[in-house]
Amino acid sequence: MKRHLESNVDNEVHIEKQRAKLNVDEERLNLFKNWLNEHNVIWDNIDIRSSILYKGFSVYSTSSEELPNIQIPTILLMSNESAKNSSTFVLPTFDILDQTDQHIDRETLILSLFLLHERLKGIQSHWYPYIQLLPTTFTTPLFHKENYVENTSVFYLTETMRQSMSEVWDLIGSSTFQLEDFLWAYTAITSRAFKLNELGTTLIPLADLANHVSFAHEANLYSMGINKETDRFVLKATEKKILDGEELCLKYNNELANWQLLLYYGFTIENNPLDSILLELKMDSNDTYEMEIKKMLLLNLSEDLCLEHELKITENEPIISENLLATLRLIVMSNEELEQFNISNLNQLLSSMVSVDNEGRVLNKLLIFLNELKDVPYTTTLEENLNRFQSNQLNDDERYSLIYLIGQKQILDNAQRWIDNALSQLK
């Protein structure tokens, strides 16, 4: 009975906290909406509310008949021009900019510091209604409380990024803010800012509530940039049919794999077709005559044969390409086999095996490379990740990281099964 009562109390506390959060979120959102209206922002046929898929707020269509129309006066945009025109903000010295150039571009650095400056001003800031609506934390690995990405390249890139930003912060030498404040501002810029011809890196209130998609056919909004006649930043609807209540999204400038989405934007896409694994082939380091011949042949046929190959899951295409097989057929050739080939007939490797023995060496070499790719970066198995992904205990950090890990391991698993099948056919 006591356990049951404790459970009820916990539920009531949780519900009360959720109710309080909803009230606060509504107040924040109303403040932001009023600010937009006070500055004559045009936001026709859209609504702002909590995102269905992500934390924070997003924009949604309010009509299946009327198209969304967003036009934002440039006075609400936050850019390097805003920082330079501010009467209270002190720009970093040229000496600091020179010293930090290797770690962060100048526009991002200045805008990050200016955002922190405006946040410190509180309600005195022109952008206060916008800043108080920004997330207080992010789902990029920089903000993860645990290492959810194991020993992958994302982990090492995150550590490198943290070290670089720490060095930048040491050079700035602020006594007002902490490194974590700077990482917050830096991530707000890198994950939300637009690149405008007129202003460079720019935070655009309201427009940055539109989440992004990786593929053009999924986007229902696009940027028209700044209209010089009206002095407004404009978002218009694409030709895609938009339904009432549908979330409005922009397309990223580039198509991004999950490692990029996670590292820079803090989310991932299940079954992302742009996911791949780089397989770097290694040749023996000895300087024999035969090895020099192999290197020369590779160099002369670099369009077809090379030492770097992408493994990716593509519909109706084998995960192990003919180019990869052909390169390995050359690399593992015996001296006798090598005598049969020269530049004029090397293209035969793209369409047929050298011999059953050579093909067996190729496939076993591939297995060695694959096992190296599995053993070094991963501390869990694909099956363990898939089981964990079914849990209802996941936070966003772990969920997005699992999607990334599962995608990478499925590529390796598909490659392993392809090789196993090829070896069984050889026998």
UniProtKB/TrEMBL annotation:
Write down the superkingdom of origin.
Eukaryota
The Rubisco LSMT substrate-binding domain sits at 294-412
Instruction: Name its GO BP terms in alphabetical order.
Output: methylation
Protein name (database record): Rubisco LSMT substrate-binding domain-containing protein
**Recorded GO MF terms:** protein-lysine N-methyltransferase activity
Q: Is this entry keyworded Nuclease?
A: no
Which keywords does this Swiss-Prot/TrEMBL entry list?
Methyltransferase, S-adenosyl-L-methionine, Transferase
Q: Give a Pfam family name.
A: Rubis-subs-bind
Query: Does this UniProt record's set of keywords contain Mitochondrion?
Result: no
